Structures are given as C-alpha cells and as structure tokens.
Amino acid sequence: MKLNLSILFVPLLLLGNAVGADAATTSGPNALALAALVADHTSALTAAQKRQMAWLFDGYVARIPTGAGPISVNADSVTCRASNVDISARSCTLTLGTTTVSVKGRLANELFATMAEAGVSAQGAAGTIFIGLTHLSCTIGPQAIRRRDGSGASCSYQPH
After folding, report:
1. Cα separation of 37 and 29, whole Å?
2. What residues contact 108, with CB distance under 8 A and at least 6 apart?
3. pTM of the predicted protein model
4. Using one digit for the tens of pLDDT, what is the confidence trace for 107-124?
5. Rounded distance, CA 151 to CA 27, Å?
6. Bridge partner list, 132
7. What are phi and psi of 91, to 5 degrees?
8. How far apart are CA 152 and CA 137, in angstroms?
C-alpha cells in the first residue's frame, strides 16, 4: 500500500498558517462598542469626537452632525483581569501612547466582556482570567452608521 504524503502535509501547512496569523479584526456592533469604550479614555480625541462616540454607542445617531468625518480610535494595549477566586476583583489597564489608564469594577467588566465579544480569547492562570490586545486601531464612520445598514465600524488588533 502506497501512502499519499500530501494528505498529511497539507493539514500541517494549514495549521502552520493559522498559528502564525496573529492579527485579528472585528466590525459592526462589536467594533463600535470596543472603540467607544476605549475612546472614553484617550486624550487623542477632541471633546466633540468623544461626544460623538458616546452618542453612536448609545444609539443617538441623529445627534451626529451630517458633516462629521471618520473617527480613529487607537490603543497600544488593553489588558483586563478578573479573578475567579476574589470574584469582586476586576481591572483593566489601557496604554494610550504615553498615557496609562486604569479602570476597575463595572467599567473593567464592560471592557473585558466587549473584548470577548469582539473575538479576543481569555486565558487563565493562578486564579486570574486575563484578556488583552495590542495595536488596536479602529475606524468609525459616523455617516455610514447613520445609514443603519451595519457598516461604519471596524477594528484591527493583535491578541496577547
């Protein structure tokens, strides 16, 4: 009997490509939620842009000026922790350029859950569940979101 080595080789090639692909993307409601939560903490946005992000996330699309342009939301890293021992312990650290922001409690839980919804995998170690990403880059198009057709929000990132 002759063994066809390509049957074994092709799956290994595919596995190798999957493991090497670190970049990830999300779009639609998950991207809007992630961008809005991060936008609230960054100094790179103007007060008007932060207000627009809050309106979009809260569903007040009609408040967005018709001439409002795209909004870019970026973070160097976002890392959240939740304890499965001290079940009241939740925290996140956002690195935004030279600024580091820490949040705890409900806000941290919201960010943790939103990253999970966006496809970031959580990992556990020694009583703590971690979730994190680096190189977050989101583009929010208020005018596209105004059309209410599911477009207008996309993010790319690298999971930790």
Report:
1. 12
2. 80, 82, 90, 91, 92
3. 0.85
4. 999 999 999 999 999 999
5. 8
6. 79
7. -155, 155
8. 14
Work out the widest C-alpha separation in the chain, in whole angstroms. 72
Using an 8 Å Cβ cutoff, are 144 and 152 in contact? yes
Is the separation of the CB atoms in 75 and 90 below 8 Å? no
Per-residue pLDDT reduced to its tens digit, 83-108 = 999 999 999 999 999 999 999 999 99
Q: In 3-state terms, the chain is what percent helix, strand and coil (to 5)?
A: 40, 35, 30
User: Tell me, what amino acid is at 134?
Assistant: T
Two tokens at 139? 């583009």
DSSP code of 31? H
Residue 101 buriedness (CB in 10 A; 0-12 / 13-18 / 19+):
middle
Nearest to 44 by CA among 104, 98, 110: 98
Number of H helices, E strands in the chain: 5, 7
- DSSP letters spanning 57-93: HHT-GGGS-TT---EEEEEEEEEEEEESSSTT-EEEE
Q: With a cut of 60, say whether residue 38 has pLDDT above it.
A: yes
- Specify the 3-state DSSP secondary structure of 112: helix
Q: Are 136 and 153 in contact (CB under 8 A)?
A: no
